[in-house]
Design brief:
The structure holds two protein chains of two kinds.
Chain A (H helix, E strand, L loop, with lengths): L15 H34 L2 E4 L4 E4 L3 H8 L3 H30 L6 H13 L2 H12 L4 H8 L11 H29 L3 H9 L4 H12 L1 H16 L3 H6 L11 H11 L3 H29 L5
Helix pairs in contact in A: 2-13, 3-7, 3-10, 4-7, 5-7, 10-13, 12-13
Chain B lengths: L1 H28 L1 E7 L4 H15 L5 E7 L5 H10 L6 E5 L3 H7 L6 H6 L10 H4 L3 E2 L2 E2 L2 E13 H6 L5 H6 L5 H13 L3 E5 L11 H4 L19 H16 L17 E7 L14 E4 L11 E9 L6 H11 L2 H7 L13 H7 L5 H14 L1 E2 L6 H12 L9 H17 L1
Parallel strand pairs in B: 1-2, 1-3, 7-8, 10-11
Antiparallel strand pairs in B: 3-10, 4-5, 6-8, 6-9, 6-10
Helix pairs in contact in B: 16-17
């Protein structure tokens, strides 16, 4: 017999599975290339920079090993900075989530004109952040709009941005008003997804309004609560423009949060190596917090049981 | 058919190659210099472009573009450009960061190149003016602007409040800080604003040197190693300023942003180049006077700006050459229209009067010429940005009514001392 008819013909390279896989890779390629170019490579570079002393003006770039990390541990300003970040994040998350949920519940009514209110509360989200903050900086000045209004009712307002406590409160509140609409919309969508029969059944069983909220609403929207809390916490750790416009980290260092501090170190003081080390610290903190929340979901999120 | 196609292809290839070759030749000769500046003033830009055009007569292949950057983030933007591998060929440099730029080796030395330029006469530039920009006898940036701090007064506002004007006090030989603060307090208590230290904003504390130099106070020792905020002169000076702000209402408090040139303020301390901001419509009766005498006597303070060429630039030599051209005796006269010169040959009433039509001969003599000749520059230090921020954070505790001045200043020194000693 001739050998031309081999018992095992070589299979074609493009099998259906391979073709599917290739199509899949092509589809995710734009996103993947973006992530590699703008996230993973810079992340690797930042880590690389954090092992160097980089003097831009003298154009020196010297490997210093863990020296920047030792400096981090010995930095006398770092405890203050971390405390400021923690206060800011805690204040922001608590205020933002509470207010967003409250607004969502109020706006989840079938009344005339509700759309107008929803739009109103959401509109700050689409306003330019810096423009929003600059307007607030005028309002919060010592002789600005807020103190002017307080003076009309005979109250002498504090110098909002120059007093340690009120400066922190001011940046938190300005940020909450800016972004509460986003969480509100997410909560609103979640609330409208809760089956109405559950409330009917509860009413038949004689459950009060508050009990319905606690036993039905909260568990049913718990996945959204988890999502918004992760977004809000991560966002709160990255606050920068508000601080730069409103307080420049002052008075003293009371509003110098981690991102602002690393901006100062890298771009104002030109310590790019140490600035990179601080951003590695920020990355670790964000990663740990997100991981912890993700782990907690099994306990607090209804659907994960 | 095929032959025709081949011919066309060959022809177009020839054209493209020819163009490319010409392009390469052109690119080798043409030099584009870029200079970062912090002024976006049309008149300034027109003058610089005129100087760049003049340079073209001897260097037809060189063009210079002037890139205005926002003043507030100027140094940050500049260093980011350098870090990103895209440095300009030339740059304006603020006096506060002079030490960083001069000591780092980032700038090209200028003295020898200027000496080789015909008719440059570097000796015409006062040594006091070049001190900040010189290291080991080499000039690294040319101080193109040496602008004295002075007081602009709004006599309408002062008289309406019943306060003595600076001119009256000078005539009586009583132009001291005590009396200046008293006049400002009279205005402040009448409901308007007394005295504004322009651009200070309770952040840019180095601008207070325009006041505390009158007490003989300095932020650090001459060698820059020791904090001197706790010295009696500084404590006294800041006590006087604190009293002027919080007790006498002579100066606006923190968080009150007030512009003298809007016409509702008695006096302001700023550089004379701000005369251009005086309102043309609804003008007020203004005056320009030297800084008052402090307890340590008469004094003057200047703010400087330098311009340097980067040592690592591809076109370093051309950049240095252009700098020599831009700041030669002839062009310095043009620059003097906007930027007070440090050249002795230009420091006379005649030259300055033609370039500063707003000022009277007396103002030019007492404020501009005397100020530039005797003025001390604002404090500067290597690693200034970090030192500035550290002291700013410490001084924040001073800007409250009940502050304990000595205690705050002791804190300032304890936090900044490690940075100064480095």
């Amino acid at each position: 017999m001739s050998a031309s008819a081999s018992p095992n013909p070589k299979p074609p390279f493009w099998t259906i599975a391979r073709r599917d896989a290739a199509a899949g890779y092509v589809f995710i390629a734009p996103q993947l290339i973006g992530i590699i170019t703008f996230v993973l490579v810079p992340l690797g570079l930042v880590f690389w920079y954090s092992l160097h002393e980089w003097n831009v003006l003298a154009a020196s770039f010297n490997f210093v090993g863990a020296a920047n990390y030792q400096m981090l541990l010995a930095d006398p300003n770092l405890p203050q900075v971390l405390v400021a970040s923690a206060i800011f994040s805690a204040g922001l998350v608590i205020l933002n989530m509470t207010l967003a949920l409250l607004l969502a519940v109020l706006l989840d009514q079938k009344l005339k004109g509700m759309v107008v209110f929803r739009t109103l509360f959401f509109s700050p989200v689409v306003v330019s952040l810096v423009a929003w903050t600059i307007v607030w900086s005028f309002l919060l000045q010592n002789n600005g709009g807020i103190n002017g209004m307080l003076a009309m009712i005979g109250v002498e307002g504090p110098n909002w941005l120059r007093t340690p406590t009120t400066a922190m409160i001011s940046v938190v509140v300005v940020q909450v008003f800016k972004n509460v609409g986003l969480n509100m919309i997410l909560f609103l969508a979640a609330l409208q997804g809760v089956p109405k029969e559950l409330y009917e059944a509860a009413r038949v069983d004689g459950a009060s309004g508050f009990k319905q909220f606690r036993r039905i609403t909260l568990p049913m929207i718990s996945p959204t609560i988890l999502l918004t809390s992760i977004i809000t916490i991560v966002g709160s750790l990255q606050v920068f423009a508000q601080i730069a416009v409103l307080t420049q980290g002052g008075p003293g260092m009371t509003t110098t949060v981690l991102v602002y501090y690393l901006y100062q170190q890298a771009f104002q003081f030109h310590f790019f190596g140490y600035g990179s080390t601080l951003s590695i610290l920020l990355f670790v903190i964000v990663a740990l917090l997100t991981f912890a929340q993700w782990q907690l979901r099994k306990r607090i999120v209804f659907y994960e049981n | 058919m095929t032959k025709h196609l081949l011919k066309t292809t060959a022809a177009s290839a020839g054209i493209i190659l020819g163009l490319a070759a010409a392009g390469t030749a052109w690119a080798q000769d043409a030099v584009n210099l870029r200079m970062t500046i912090w002024s976006a003033n049309e008149a300034h830009l027109a003058m610089f472009n005129e100087i760049a055009e003049g340079f073209k007569t001897t260097h037809p292949n060189v063009s210079v573009t002037f890139e205005p950057l926002p003043f507030d983030s100027y140094t940050t933007t500049l260093t980011t450009q350098i870090a990103g591998g895209n440095p300009p060929d030339l740059a304006w440099i603020l006096e506060t960061t002079a030490a960083d730029f001069v000591n780092s080796g980032a700038l090209a030395p200028l003295t020898d190149a200027f000496a080789a330029t015909e008719g440059y006469d570097l000796a015409d530039v006062s040594e006091k003016a070049t001190a900040l920009w010189t290291k080991d006898g080499q000039l690294y940036a040319y101080p193109f602007s040496t602008s004295p701090f002075a007081i602009f007064a709004n006599n309408d506002v002062l008289k309406a409040a019943g306060a003595k004007t600076p001119a009256e006090l000078i005539a009586a030989g009583e132009w001291t800080w005590d009396n200046a603060f008293a006049s400002a307090a009279t205005v402040g208590q009448s409901g308007k604003t007394g005295l504004v230290v322009r651009d200070f904003k309770f952040q840019t504390w180095q601008n207070l040197a325009s006041i505390w130099n009158g007490w003989g106070a300095t932020p650090w020792s001459a060698d820059g190693k020791t904090c001197t905020f706790t010295e009696p002169a500084m404590v006294d000076a800041l006590t006087a300023i604190h009293k002027a702000v919080f007790t006498d209402k002579a100066m606006p408090g923190p968080g009150e942003d007030i512009d003298f040139f809007a016409g509702e303020t008695g006096m302001t301390i700023t550089q004379i180049s701000r005369a251009s901001l005086l309102p043309k419509e609804n003008p007020f009766d203004w005056d320009l006077v030297p800084l008052p005498a402090g307890p340590a006597g008469e004094y003057s303070v200047v703010g400087q700006a330098g311009v340097g060429a980067f040592a690592k630039g591809a076109n370093k030599d051309v950049a240095v050459e252009f700098l020599g051209y831009m700041t030669n005796a002839e062009n310095s006269k043009k620059l003097a229209q906007f930027f007070p010169p440090a050249r002795a040959s230009l420091l006379n009433a005649e030259t300055l009067a033609s370039t500063n039509p707003l000022l009277s001969p007396e103002q030019i003599e007492t404020v501009v010429i005397a100020g530039i000749a005797n003025g001390t520059v604002l404090p500067g230090h290597t690693n200034f940005a970090q030192i500035q921020q550290t002291i700013r954070a410490g001084l924040d505790a001073l800007w409250v009514p009940e502050a304990d001045v000595a205690a705050v200043l002791a804190n300032v020194c304890s936090s900044v001392s490690p940075l100064l000693a480095r």
